Amino acid sequence: MSSQDIPEENLPAEQAHAHGAVGIADEENPFADPGLPPHEHRIQDIDERAAKRSERMVALLFTVSMLATVGFIASYVAIPHDKNIFVFPIGHISALNFALGLTLGVALFCIGAGAVHWARTLMSDVEVADERHPIEASPEVRAKVHADFRQGAAESVIGRRKLVRNTMFGALALVPLSGVMLLRDLGPLPGTSLRHTLWAKGKRLVNMNTNLPLRPEDVAVGSLTFAKPDGLEETQEEFQTEIAKAALMIVRLQPGNIKDKRELDWSHEGIVAFSKICTHVGCPISLYEQQTHHVLCPCHQSTFDLSDGARVIFGPAGHALPQLRIGVDSEGYLQALGDFEEPVGPAFWERG
């Protein structure tokens, strides 16, 4: 259907300033202004049923965008990060990445497609010719801009097409949630995982170098030995995560040199076990001074006295190194009598 087939009274009123005047070429202006061609009305301008169909299409696109955003959030929460799927012809890819990319792409595409379809079928498409004006706007020009803005707002039919307006607002309000959800990947939420390690009652202490369980006679007075929980192997996927919490320093002191009563009670024949993780920023401690029983963190020089509950005697560390209560099992191997009673590593986790 074209505008020629519609009675004159049904056609939208033309704006007086819609078409530029046709110029005539002369010596001063050799390029004539051809003017604007006659305006062709769209089917939506002359048929309200077609306009309603366009309105429903725009609303459908905005609604699909909202559903895709909800799908993005649901995928982020529900799909495991290590799950893979086969997608032809791409091959095996991460299910989470595929779902996030697909849903976010659909959400953004539908908002854009809905806005384009709205502009092409429902907003006014009357051609407007406007003369150039000086860069500095005069009061008359500013008044005209404001009037044009109000006219454009009216011609956008945003006030009359409430379904389009409301679904657009819904799509624009929901799609930023995708970015908010991605903020979670700034770092994994630790929950209470940093308050617990693999140490538990009956777990043997294994030498990090020999990978063999430790007996009391294996630890000489004045020596420093590093230990891990029995069953934790370097080939395991979670090895680095777990050893970062469970790494131990084993030192044997003369029982008479131990100043702290709890340290003495939690030791076995002078053998004490402290976390190897510095309480400042989590660096591994490895420097031991035999005569003073001090250990030094190489990162920021925090110093701990292992003969006095591993308290801080120098440096920025926040508190003493956590001690692990140890004993021996029926076969004579050193074993833990429980987990650490406080979080290992940086002090700020205690406030988590």
Structure report:
The strands form 4 sheets. A 5-stranded antiparallel β-sheet has the order 3-4-5-6-11. A 4-stranded antiparallel β-sheet has the order 7-8-9-10, with no helix packed on it. With 352 residues, it is α+β, with helices and mostly antiparallel strands. The chain has helices at 43-46, 48-78, 95-121, 139-155, 162-174, 176-182, 239-246, 261-265, and strands spanning 84-87, 91-94, 205-207, 224-229, 248-252, 271-275, 287-289, 294-296, 303-305, 311-314, 323-324, 326-328, 334-336. Helix 2 packs parallel to helix 5 and helix 3 runs antiparallel to helix 5. Residues 15-20 have low confidence and may be disordered. The longest helix has 31 residues, at 48-78. The chain has 8 helices and 13 strands.
